[in-house]
Design brief:
By secondary structure, the protein is α/β, with parallel strands linked by helices. It is built from ten helices and eight strands. Strands 1-2-3-4-5-6-7-8 form an eight-stranded parallel barrel, surrounded by seven helices.
Length: about 250
């Protein structure tokens, strides 16, 4: 099984280098906006483009991924809300298991159903422990998953959940406050999780300012994902990317 993008992430973590990813929801972009996001991402040296969302009610996923691949060389990683959100034209797939919840369908159920199709897709599969943290507002992911997020001040629960996910074989840990979160994940929670796992740590949800992206990286995040803020102001891509890439390299 391919491990090109994962190996790059792991090597960057080893070198202490941080990455910035722009999250693109196919339901929320037309061709003009997609072209703008691609142009800005290339200019800002964005590391990854994540494509997907909790719902994806349109049929534009495949078209969206193909358009991105035709117009830039930035790796495209699928961030699926369900097994149906797959495009063989992408480079890799975050194979998400919602380890912060107790919904068996999102822990393993949907994976059993989708496994043969996923294997045949030819995508690089990256097993990812997905942890939803309370961002102060109901989010689509918490509603769809029917799972209670980890309370924002329960750092030890997040730490133990991430550790368990890693020991169960998850190659990545993704902590998410959800799209449109009123408050992002705290630096103290990021730090305690980062200090207790070796897997690359992805942080997303509620990050609206470059300074927050910078502080999250300083706390231990390896990849910062921003989507909602960029949907409102695409010009933030340059500032966010610059902030993430300006974090001093700290070799682990």
């Amino acid at each position: 099984m391919k491990s090109v993008i994962y190996n790059t992430l792991a090597e960057k973590k080893k070198q202490g280098k941080k990455s910035f990813a722009v999250l693109i929801d196919p339901d929320k972009v037309d061709k003009a906006l997609l072209d703008e996001l691609i142009e800005l991402s290339v200019s800002a040296k964005v590391d990854y483009l994540l494509v997907g969302g909790s719902l994806v009610i349109s049929n534009h996923l495949d078209e969206c991924v193909q358009h991105i691949k035709q117009h830039c060389s930035i790796p495209v990683i699928l961030f699926p809300g369900s097994p149906s959100q797959i495009s063989k034209h992408a480079d890799a797939l975050l194979y998400l298991s919602l380890i912060s919840g107790r919904n068996p369908e999102l822990l393993i159920g949907q994976h059993v159903v989708s496994a043969p199709f996923i294997r045949q897709s030819g995508l690089e599969i990256m097993p990812t422990g997905y942890i939803v943290v309370d961002g102060g507002a109901p989010t689509t992911v918490s509603y769809i998953s029917n799972a209670t997020p980890i309370p924002a001040d329960k750092n030890e629960i997040a730490m133990c959940t991430a550790m368990a996910g890693e020991m169960l074989g998850m190659k990545l840990i993704y902590m998410d406050a959800g799209s449109g979160a009123k408050r992002p994940i705290t630096e103290s929670m990021i730090k305690i999780v980062a200090d207790h796992i070796e897997a690359p740590l992805i942080i997303g949800g509620g990050i609206t300012e470059p300074e927050k992206a910078y502080l999250n990286c300083k706390a231990g995040a390896d990849v910062i994902v921003v989507g909602n803020a960029i949907e409102k102001d695409a010009s933030l891509i340059q500032e966010m990317s610059a902030a993430v890439h300006s974090v001093p390299v700290k070799v682990i």
